[in-house]
Amino acid sequence: MSWSLGAPPILLAGASPLAAQVAAGLGRARRRFEQIADPAAVVPAPALLRRLQRALVLVLADPQDAAASLAALARACQRRAAGRAPLRVLLIHDTGNAAPAPLPLPAVPATLQLEQIDLAARAARLLLARWPLHQGADPGDDQAIHLIIAGRAPPAEALLVQALRGGHYGERPLHITLLAGAAAAWQRAFMAAYPQAGQIARLRFLGPDDPELLNGPPVSLVWVCPALPSAGLAVAIGLARQLAAGQGVSPPILLEVGATQPTGTLADWDGQIIPVSYRDTVLAPEVLLEARTDALAQVIHGHYRDSIEAQGRDPASEPAGQPWATLAESYRDANRQQADHLWAKLAVTDCRAVAEEQVESFAFTPVEVERLAQIEHARWAADRYLDGWSYAPVRDNARKQHPQLILYRDLSGPMQDLDRFAVRQVPALLARSSLGVVRMLILGLAPLPPGFPAAALTDARLHRRFGQILRRLLARYPARGLILASTLAEAPARRFAQRALDEAGAGLFLLGDRPLPALLAGLDAAARLETLALVARAERRIPLPAPGELLRWLHRRAEILLEFAPTATPRGTAAVSAAGAPKRVEIDPAGRLHWGFEY
Predict the structure, then answer these.
(1) Is 28 exposed, middle or buried (0-12, 13-18, 19+ CB in 10 A)?
(2) pLDDT digits (tens, 9 = 90+) for 394-429
(3) Domain 124-283 falls under CATH 3.30.70
(4) 3-state DSSP call for residue 236?
(5) What residues have CB less than 8 Å from 14, skipping those under 6 apart?
C-alpha cells in the first residue's frame, strides 16, 4: 500500500531524534504526514481523535513509555468508526545491539493493528538479503562461508544473530570472525545470551590485530560497524589490504556510515567498500510503510493456514494459525526466517528465481530434496537454539525443550518427511509470489591463451560472434537462467559480459583468481571504469586464489566453456567434451565460431 499527496495522512508521533529521521525520509519521498505529540503525553483531545479517525498509519518512533503510548492509542481507537480499516501502528525500537525488553502491552482492539520493529534486527534481515552470506562464495561448489564483523557498534550483534539464523548451506559449517577491541568481553556477553551459538557456527572473537584472522577459509563477506563512523573507512581499507595480501581475496566490505552521506563517483571506487546505513535502510518509506520485506513471509504463513484448513481444522483456533495482522511476533519471525533462507536453498542447488511466466514447472531432484532437507533442519534447529530452546526427550514449551533438536540423520522417518515437505514446497511458495525457479546455465569464459592475437579480433567481429552465441544458447536452453562466469581481466570477456547482462538478462559470477587491486592496476582508465561497472553488477564473487584453481573451477562448474582457440580450427569442429566435462564453444584467431556440441 502506498500513499499519494491526496491520500489520508500518515501520523508520526513524538519528537525524538528517530522521529525526526522518519520525518525527513517521509519528506524526501513526498509522503503526506502529520507530526503529533506522543499519545502517552496528552489526554486524547477531540482534534487528536479526528486525526486518528482519518489516518491509516501511525508511526510511534522510540517513545519514552511505549506501553503507556499504546494504552492511550487503544483507548482512542475504541472510538474509531466502524467499517474503517484498522489503524496500523508501527512501534519502532532503536535498541542498538540490545534486544528490546518485552512490553506489557494492553489489550489491542480490532481497530488497531500493531507491528513492533526492532530497528537493528530488521536492518540485519534487509542487509543480509541484499548482500547475502553467499555473495562472496560458491556454496554450489561446497565453498565455506566466512563472515567477518569488525567492530561492535550497531548493527553488529544483530548481523551476527541473523547470520547464525540463516547461514546454513550444507556440510561445511558457517565461519564467523568477530573483531573488536574488547573481544573477550564481547565473547562472554554474547555466549551468555546465546549459549548454544557454538553448535550453529564456528565463532572466533579476536582483537583487531590478531594474526589468527588470516587462518581459516577465505573470507567471503565483511561488515565494518565502527563506534565512530569517521574511523570506519580506515578499518575497511586496512582489512581489504590484509585479506588481499594474506588470502588473495577481495570480498565485498560493507561499511556502516551512520548519518554520513557518501560522495564520489564510480571512478573513485575500489570495487570492494560499499557504504550502508542500517537506520536509513529500515526507515526508507517504501520499506517502513509498505511491508515489502514481509511479502514472502506472509505467503508462507498463508500457505500454512491453507494446509491447516485442508485438514479440516480452523487455522484461527491455533496460535500459529492466526491471520498475519494478529499473529504473534514470534510466529511472524519464524515465517520471516523461513522466507529469508529460500535464497540460500536456491544458491546451494544452482537455481534462480525469475518471473513466473518464464517457467512452466520445476521440482528439485530427490538428491537435492534430501540435501536441502538436512539444511532446512539445521536452519530450524538454529532458530530454536537462538530462542533459548534445548533438547529433551519430551517437548515442554514452558521450559523451551524439544525432542527434535537432534541431527537430521537421527530423526525418525516421519520427522525427516516434514523437512522434505518444506523443501518440496519452495517452488509452490515462490509461485504464490509470482516467481518461478529455473536452473542456472553456467557459461564460463576461459582466459585468453598465451600468444593469442587478440588485436586481430575487431570489436565489430566480436560483437557479431557474441550475439550469435547468446542467441543460440537462449534458443537451445529457453528454460535455464544464464550465468556468465569470468575474471573480467581481458577486454573480450568484459565486452561479452556487458552484452550478456544487458541483452540476455544473464547474471554474473566474478571469478577471483587475483585480488581486485591487482586486477584494476593493470587497466587503463576506461577499462578500469568498465570493469568496476561490471563488478557492481556481479551477483557472486567467487574466491579462487590458489594456483590452477580458476581452470579447475571452470572445468568443474561450467556447463559450457567459451574458449579462444590458440590456432585456427577446421570449420565446424571444436574439442568434443569428455563425459562430465563442460561443452565447448571456440573462437579462433580469425574470429570464426566452432561448436563442440549440438546447439
Answers:
(1) exposed
(2) 999 899 999 999 999 999 999 999 999 999 999 999
(3) no
(4) helix
(5) 37, 38, 60, 61, 62, 63
